[in-house]
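Please review this one:
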Amino acid sequence: TQDELEKRFEYLTDLVFPAVAEKSADTQRKMIDKFNRTHRILEFPPGSYVMAREELPDGKLSPKYQGPYKVMKRTSNGTYTLMDKTKNELARNYAPEQLKLVTQALDAPSDESYEVESILGHRLT
């Protein structure tokens, strides 16, 4: 009957729908927290130097990262365009998860030099 339908509708709108919405929001919060714990959101400024992870390494002992490469720009979909030492743009873009920031280019000349005066704690002396 119409009266039973109205009571059922009132029951759904007052009790069931808010409970479902609360449970859904709680589940969504938990999913966001889990994602944030397991994923790093990385951004590399243009001009910084990065090492790129090799997708298919040549062997077990081959290096995992190649580079250093210079970051040219970030594309609209979040990947990065890189430039190698010869000032050529790499053929593909890299996702932030495939990159590791390095403090300076490894081929950059350094003004600092050190000279060892003496070795103090060696086993043979």
